[in-house]
Fold each of these.
Amino acid sequence: MTPMRTQQDQHIQNAAPVIELRQAGKAYSHKPVLQDINWQVQTGEYWGIIGPNGSGKTTMLQLISGMERTDTGTVLLEGRDISSYSRRRIARFTAVLGQEGLAPLHYPVREVLTMGRYPYQSWLGRDELDTADELIDQIMERLDLRSLADRPLDQLSGGQRQRVAFGKVMAQQPKLLLLDEPTTYLDIAYQIHFMEWLDEWRRESGITIIAVLHDLNLAARYCDRLLALNEGRMIQTGTPQQLMQEETIRSLFQVEPAIVHHPDIHVPQLLLKRQ
Amino acid sequence: MSRKATLPVLLFVALLVISLVLTTGIGSVYISAGQIIRILLYHLPFMQHWIVPDWSGASEQIMLRIRMPRVVLAMLVGAALGVAGAAFQGVLRNPLADPFTLGVSSGASVGAAVLIFTGYEYSLFGSWTLPLVAFVTGMITLYGVLMLAREQGRIPTNSLILSGVVMQSFLGAIVSFLASMSEGSVNEIIFWTMGSLSLRGWPYVVVMLPYVLIGILFLWTQSRAMNLLALGEKEAAHLGLTVDRTKTLVLIVATLITAAAVSVSGVIAFVGLVVPHMIRLLIGSDYRLLIPLSALGGGIFLMWADTVARTVLSPTEIPLGVVTAFVGAPFFAYLLHRYKKQRTD
C-alpha cells in the first residue's frame, strides 16, 4: 500500500503531540459539559474515550476536530492552536467517522470515496496526488467494495454504507482519525471486521486514533490507552488493564461489574451482574 | 469531467441549438430552419460572398429584430432559473426549493417594479440598475423567508415552502398594487406576476447576459461543494468545506441570477423546480453535471414554453408564467407526494 504514509514519515515530521488539550473547557448555555481537561496524544497512539452518556465524550471530539471552540483553555494540533488552522488544513490532517455512516443518497460508491479527496483537490477538481485513482481502487479492493463501485448508496445496506464511509475516511489519508461510536449500528460480525480493518490500516500507516466507544470490551481489546470521562471531567487515563477495574467501572457507570480475562488475548473483559 | 459526462452535455447542446433554430422559425410568419441558418451565416463576417440572399427583407427583419432576441432571452432566463433552482436545492438541501417557491422571484420583482413605476430604472448605474435593485430586494426576501422558516437552527422542508408562499402572496400584492397605481394597464400587472417576454429586444439580452453567464459559471465551480453538502453539513465540514461561507456565496449568486432574470421577464414560476428534477431523473444528482445541464435544459424548456405562449392563441399571448405553471404546479404536487412517501417509508 504505497500511498499510505509509513510510520517513519510521521516520526520525522513532528515531535509535538498530535493533540494536546490544556485546561480545555466547554459550556453550552452556561452549563459546563467539559472542564479542565489536560491531555496529550502522541503520534501512533490508539485512545479510547469511555464514560456514561452525557459525560462529554462527543464534545471532546468536537473540540479535537475543530468543529467547536473551547470556552476556556486551548486545543493544540501538532503544537499549534487549532483555531489557527483552516477547515481545509484540518481536513488534510484529521478525519472523522460517525455512528450514522452515510445518508442513503443517490451517489455511486466510487464518487463518494472520491469525495474523501476533497481537501486535496484544486478548485477545478484536480487532485494533487497523481495516483488518487489508484488509491481509491486499492481502498475498494481492501474493503470488498469493488463489486459495489457503481451502485448508488441508497441501494446499499446500513453495514455496506458504513464500509463506504470508512473507505471515504481512508481516501482522506488523515494522520489523526476520530471515531464516534462507529460500530453502534453494526452487527457483531461487522463490528469485528470493522475493528480489524482499522487495526490493519493503523499498522500500515501509523495513524493516530481517538475513538469514543460505548462497548468497553471492544475498547479494551483494541485501544492501547483509555481515558475515562464523567460529568465533564477527566477521571483517569491509562492502559485497559489499569482502567478496567471493577471499582472504576462501578463508580463510572453505576453498575455491578465482573471483570474476566479474555481467553486468547490478555485483555480484561467486562460482564455485568444483575442488580 | 469524465467521459461519462461528455455525452449528455453534447446531447443537450445539440438540443439547445436545434430548439433555438426551430422556435425562431415558429410564429405568425413561418421561417424555415434552412433559411434561418442561412440568414445567420450571412451575417457572419466574410460570409456574404458565399450566400446569396433569397429571402424577403421582411422575414429577415422579423427574425433578427423580433424573434431572435426573444428566443435568446427565453434561453437566458430559463438557464438562470434552472441553475438557480438547482443551487437553492443544493445548499438548502431541500428538494422543493426554487426561486419561485422561496419567494425570491417575487422579492426581486418588487424591486424592479418599484423602479419602473417610479421611473428610476436608469438611475445610478444606467441599465444595470434594474437587476441590481431586484437583487437587493430578492436577497432581503430570501433572508426573511429563511428566518421565518427556521426552527431551532434547522429549516424543515415544509415550513420553508410555507414561508415562501406567505412572502410570495404578500410581495405579489405589492407589485399588483403598484401596477394599478401607475395608471398602466392590467397588462402590466400580468407581466410582473405571470411573466412575459413580449416586446423584449436585444438591449435586454445585453443587460442580462453578464450576470447570468458569470453567475452560472461561478455556481458550476461550487458543484463539488454542493455534492459534499448532500452528505450533510457536518460531514462536509470534516472534509474541509467552509460550510457557512459556501452556503452564503451560493445563495447570493443564485439570487443574483434570479434577479437578472426577473428584471427582464417578471415572475416565471416553477422553472427552477421542473428542470433540475428532470435532469436528476436522467443523470442523477452529481452537481458537476446537474448545474450545466440545468442551464441547458432550462434554456430549452423556456424557449419552447415561450413559443407555446406566443403561438397557441395567436394573436393573443398567454403569459409565459401561465404556461410554466401548467407544467410546474402538477410537477410540484408530484414531488410533494414523492417526498411525503419517502419520509413515511
Amino acid sequence: MTGYVDFGYVAFMGVGTYGMALGITRLVHFKGLGIGLIIIGLCLAMVMSTLLALAVGAVALRLRGAYFAIATIGVNEGFRYLIEGAKIWNGSEGIIFMGQMNEAFGDEVASALSTFWADVLVVIIAALAAFVTLHYMRSKIGYALTALREDEDAAKVMGINVTKFKIIAFITSAIFAGLLGAAAWAIKTPYVFPPEVFEIHYTVEAIIIVLLGGAGTLLGPVVGGLIYGISKYFLAIILPGFQLLIFAPIIIIIIVLFPEGTIGMLKNRVRGTALERYIV
Amino acid sequence: MSLLRLENITKRFGGLVAVDDVSLEIQEGELIAIVGPNGAGKTTLFNIISGVFLPEEGRVFFQDKDITELPAYKRAPLGLGRTFQIPRPFSSASVRENVAIGAMFGTLAGKVTVDESLEIADHYIDLVGLQDHRNKAAGTLTPVEKKLMEIARALAMKPKLLLMDEAMAGMNPKDIDEMVQFLLRLKEEEKMSIIAMVEHIMRAVAGLAERVMVMHQGAKFVDAPTKEALSDPKVVEVYLGHSKGE
C-alpha cells in the first residue's frame, strides 16, 4: 500500500519460523502448556519479526523507492549469514524439532498439526491479513499510505507524519510474514535451516504475484496468486525447466504495459460506478 | 499578535542565495500578494514557511510560536495550508479522497472520522465547482482542474493561513477574475489569511491583495499597499526591464 517494495520480506518469514522453532524447543519441558505452546510460538514469531522490522525500518525507511528495495535485499542475506556465521540458534545446522513436537503434543496431535492444522492456520492468517488490510484501507491509515505513495513531500505538507505511517505498514507486513513463517514453515515441516527459510526466491515470487494482481489492492494478490500458480503449473508441464525464463519477459511486459496489475486495471474501469465498492 | 512572522530569513543553495534576509509579518485576516519574476525566491520562501526547507538564518513564528525547525507535518495541524506551483495531486486517488486527506490531517486532525472528512471534502469540491469530477482519479484532471482540486484540498485543512503558489498561472483573464472574486469571498467566509504568490499577472494582484511584497533576486524589494507598490518606479523597472524614457 505504500509503494515500497520490500525484497527482504522473506527475512521476516524466516525470523517467524525461528520464533516458532525456538518457542517449541526451549519450552517443551514445561508440561501442561499443551497447545498453548503453539500460541506462544506464534507470539514469539510476531515479537521477533516486529523487532527486526523496527531495526530494519529505522534505517531502510529513510530511503525511497528503488533504494529502499535494494537495501532490503541485503537484510535477508545479511541475516542469514549472521545466523550461520555467529552460530546463533544453532547456526547453519538449523533446528530440527520433530522430536520435541511429538514430546509436547503426542505423536498423533503432532502429525495432525503439521499436516492439517498448519494449513488451517495459513488460511486463518491470510483471512486476518485481508481483514486488517481492508480495515487499513478504509481508515485514515489507508488515506495516509495512498498519499505518501503518490507524493511523499506533498503528503508531509498536508500534515501526514509519513515516517509513522510507513513504520505502521512495515511492521504490519512483517508481523504477518512472521506468522506465516511460523505456521506455513515451522509447524508444517517441522525444521528450520537458514539457507531454506531465507531464500530470496520466495520474495521474488511474492512480488511477481503482487505485480500480476495489482499493488495496493486487496484482491490483487489473490488474483495474482491464482494466475501465477496456474501458469507456473502449466508451464512446468509444457516447457519443464523453462518457467523462469518465460516469466522474466512476462514480468517486464507487465511492468511496462500494465503497471497497475489486473485488479488495478479493473478498478480504473469501474471507478465511479456501483461496482467500485467491491473491487478493493 | 501577528499570524505569521518571518525574521531575517536567509536560505542558500550552495553558492546561490535563494532568499536573502527577508522579513515579513502577516496579520489575521490579511490577504497579501508576493510578486516577483521567475527565480526571485518566492517558492523557496513558501517552502520555508511550510517546512519543506529549513532556513540557514532567521526564524519563523506562527501565532508567536517559533516553528522554524518544526517538521512540515506538524505545521499543517497548526493551520498552515498550501497549494503547489505545479499541482501535486495524489494521482491514483479520487478527487474526493484527495480533498478528504486535507480534512483528515489538517487542523481537524484527530477530530473528524473518515466519513466526516469525506463530507467536508464534498463541501469544498462543490465550492470550487468540481462536483462533476468527484469520483475521477485526480491524475486525470486538466491542469486548471488540478489547481482547483488543490485549493479544495488546502481549504479542507481549515487553515488559518493559506499559501497559494501560482494559483492563477495558465488561466485566462475571465478565470482569473473569477478566481480573484472567489478568494476574496473565501477570506471573508472562512476567516483566513491568504498569501498568494503571483509571478506576473498584475491583473490578479491589483484586484486581490491589500498589500504586496515584491521580491527580486531573493531579497525583499518593496512591501507596501498594493497601489503604492505597483506604481513604484523600482517595481516597474524590475518587471518591465527598463523604466520610462530609456
